[in-house]
Write a structure and sequence with these properties.
alpha/beta; Rossmann fold; GMP Synthetase, Chain A, domain 3; 2 domains; six-stranded mixed β-sheet; three-stranded mixed β-sheet; 9 strands; 22% strand; globular; binds guanosine-5'-triphosphate; binds magnesium ion
Amino acid sequence: MATSSAAAAPSGEHRSGTVAIVGRPNVGKSTLLNALVGAHVSITSRKAQTTRNRVVGIRTAPGAQLSFVDTPGFQTRYANALNKAMNREVSRALADVDAILLVVEATGWDERDDAMLGLLPPAARVVLALNKVDRVKDRHALASLLAACGARRDFAALVPVSAEKGRAVDALAAELARCVPEGPPLHGPDEITDRPERFLAAELVREKLFRLLGEEIPYGTAVVVDQFEQEGALRRIHATVFVDRDSHRAMVIGARGEMLKRIGTEARVGMEALFGGKVYLELFVKVKRGWADDERVLRDWGFE
Ligand SMILES: Nc1nc2c(ncn2[C@@H]2O[C@H](COP(=O)(O)OP(=O)(O)OP(=O)(O)O)[C@@H](O)[C@H]2O)c(=O)[nH]1
Ligand SMILES: [Mg+2]
């Protein structure tokens, strides 16, 4: 076990592998993935359960290429079909990876972290990231948390990080690189995700719904891209926001359409930054009652 020391792979040796990022909701898994990759490939918000599908982000650095699988936060509180599909994504992501990055908050171990820890295969190589260390003022508390975490499992490394401030992210990547096998890079240096732009576009709309709407409504929304056309450097995208109730439709649209306009503008800015080209985005809002508990609809929308 080691705390954050940032040694690069020995010269001449290249490592390559897959790392699943897991943890309870809202600990900063997606923010950490984006910091590791250096691009906003996975959406984030201050609300729990933002991520719904696995998203792979690829980090290419001298000596190592790591494919990170971001996953939904593992939780046992809600049990509709969508939540069950989200937990299945977590279990699936744990199979066939070279290492696991378990994320907890540096402000303290939570009993909900135990549920996640219990799912990790006993033989897996697990690195523990204690994220949001920027919020910890008491160094002694952090030291005793590190000791307590070390007693819970034989972690390959324990690394206090701040995904948001970019603190110790390279050191964390170096620890993870040690956990994956030697091998050549499997992706080109410009490849940063396995997900198509169509998926990323829908996700960026969903991110703005999570960030801009109240506490309840985002959980009843889903986004489907109906049309995605590229004309030179311009992408023309039509997407539908599905909501669970009529009253939610009115909230998403807002007075004089102001809310929908803001969601559209912010999503478009995010897409233009990620895709590196101009985007024309048109959004529609439709009601589909009970979609989050409808297995058939969920399958149509890409949940397995
Ligand atoms: N202060 C602080 N906040 C952070 C840090 N990393 C993430 N956050 C915040 O924590 C919140 C949750 O971040 P996400 O990356 O969406 O968390 P997640 O674990 O992917 O959440 P789910 O997908 O919902 O499970 C956001 O408001 C982030 O800005 C950090 O290092 N420091
Ligand atoms: Mg997430």
